[in-house]
């Protein structure tokens, strides 16, 4: 099943942090109740990695007031063979900036 990073930023003031955390914890959603938070390190975001069918489903996990600002990133892993193949294609094409994601 596809995996997605879901990042939900919020304002850095204490009242906003408390409000967002409270909304997440009160939803009853397994995903939201188990979000990781970067607030204590100055990164005011809820962060989750979820396994769902697609980006739309990942975004739907986020409470409606925060959906527009959520960042949804599809995650993948590369094998060594994939990296070698990409490097070889880039070298053959003369493209020095072709990287793992290109």
Give the helix tally: 5
Q: Let me know the average pLDDT.
A: 90
Structural class: alpha+beta
Extract low-pLDDT stretches: none
Largest beta-sheet characterization: 4 strands, antiparallel
Strand order of the largest sheet: 2-3-1-4
**Euclidean distance between termini CA atoms:** 23 Å
Number of strands: 4
Percentage of residues in helical conformation: 40-55%
Radius of gyration equals: 18 Å
Which geometry do the CA atoms define?
Answer: elongated
Strand content: 15-25%
Helix-strand sequence = EHHEEHHEH
SSE layout:
Layout: E1 3-9, H1 14-26, H2 30-33, E2 36-37, E3 45-51, H3 55-61, H4 64-67, E4 71-75, H5 80-93
Structural key phrases:
single chain; 102 residues; alpha+beta; 41% helix; elongated
What does this structure look like?
The chain is α+β, with helices and mostly antiparallel strands and 102 residues long. The chain is 41% helix and 21% strand. The protein has five helices and four strands. A four-stranded antiparallel beta sheet has the order 2-3-1-4, with helices on one face. β2 (36-37) and β3 (45-51) form a beta hairpin. The longest helix has 14 residues, at 80-93. The radius of gyration is 18 Å and the shape is elongated. The two termini are 23 Å apart. The mean pLDDT is 90.
């Amino acid at each position: 099943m596809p995996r997605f990073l879901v990042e939900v930023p919020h304002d850095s003031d204490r009242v906003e942090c408390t409000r967002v955390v409270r909304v997440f914890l009160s939803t009853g959603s397994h995903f939201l109740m188990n979000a990781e938070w970067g607030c204590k390190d100055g990164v005011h975001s809820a962060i989750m990695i979820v396994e769902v069918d697609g980006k739309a489903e990942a975004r739907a996990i986020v409470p409606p007031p925060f959906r527009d600002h959520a960042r949804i990133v599809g995650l993948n892993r590369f094998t060594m063979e994939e990296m070698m193949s990409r490097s070889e294609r880039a070298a053959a094409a003369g493209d020095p900036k072709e990287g793992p994601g290109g």
